[in-house]
Amino acid sequence: MIIECPKCKKRYKVNESNIPAGGGPVRCSACSNIFTIYREPLDIQLIPVEEGKVAKPSVEKVSVEPPLEKREEERIIEEVKAPPSPEDAKEVLIKSFQEEREQVVTKPAFPEVLDEEKKKRHSKAQRLARSLTKDILLYHKDEVEKGRKQGNLVELLGNEIKRSWKFFKQQVGEDVIKERNYFKEALNEIIADGEETFV
After folding, report:
1. pLDDT band for position 105 (50/70/90)?
2. Vertex 91 angle, CA 85 and 97, to 5°
3. What does 55-66 look like in DSSP terms, one character per residue?
4. Which residues of 121-133 are buried (b: 16+ CB within 10 A; e: fewer)?
5. Higher pLDDT residue, 107 or 8?
6. What is the DSSP string of 139-164?
7. Does residue 75 have a pLDDT over 70?
8. Which of the 8 DSSP states describes residue 18?
9. How many domains does the chain fold into?
10. Which of 71, 90, 107, 124 matches a 20 to 30 Å C-alpha distance to 101?
11. DSSP secondary-structure letter at 16?
12. Global pTM?
């Protein structure tokens, strides 16, 4: 699907399967504006029901709960009837961050010797690094695939990586980066597909 930044009118091609059911915020790579995108509504014919013509179940009939797949489909239909509120979009984003943090099992999230405040900063740095690199992959998928094949990811994505790295350093701080460079790890895992390309 095609989306457009409401601020600078830059248009992007987005894989709809990457958008959460309730929509989610994205950042324009041209002007850094943050806005919310939503999935296209499902193409389902809705047939209106006239009052008084709905047959009421008899007392003798046993109510059977629909299968799990049917309940999930109905829930999704309910969610896409109208755009979610900003609070709902924020909740979806926070939930996706929490799920992503639980799935990171390849390496410890941060050194065990850190105090609680430092652990929170390391956790924030790890989540931000993965979010920024996923943005690069989302908006520059063709360049990423080309760079993986030709072995020139650094040259093709240099400007985007520099912008994201500058933002990452401002948000995280040099002290955390010196202890562990989550941005470099995320680049190698997500952009370089597990290869140690970024050193």
Report:
1. very low
2. 140
3. PPPPTTSPP-PP
4. bbbebbbbbbbbb
5. 8
6. HTHHHHHHHHHHT-HHHHHHHHHHHH
7. no
8. G
9. 2
10. 71
11. G
12. 0.45
